[in-house]
Amino acid sequence: MHAKWPTDLKLTITRRDGGAVPLEPVMGAFAHLVAFDQTRSGFAHLHPVDTDLSKPPDATRPALDFKITIPRPGRYVIWAQVGLGGREVFAPFWFEVVP
User: How far apart are CA 73 and CA 70, in angstroms?
Assistant: First the structure.
């Protein structure tokens, strides 16, 4: 990922047993991503590109598309928030951004 370049992100959720994923909306979207730099300064709160809740993603392997532009090179973390079967689940994804 390059700093200052728009980037497409895809969040795909699967179960180990290959079964259905009980994805539910959280605060008006099927997922939220929150990006932080290494000092934990939050700089982006992202919703999926398609936010039509009447069209849920695939029940077995839901995939949600996001767009983000990272301002500077460095180490970042994006926390994903999803609703699964009546509970909210949070997962971090660390990555490096190059100039």
Answer: 8
C-alpha 14 chain-centroid distance: 14
Q: What share of the chain is helix, strand, coil (3-state, %, to 5)?
A: 0, 55, 45
pLDDT, residue 41, reads 79
* pTM for the full predicted model: 0.88
**Number of folded domains in the chain?**
1
Q: Decide if 1 is inside a domain.
A: no
Q: Is the residue at 23 inside a domain?
A: yes
Q: Write out pLDDT tens, residues 32-48.
A: 999 999 888 777 899 99
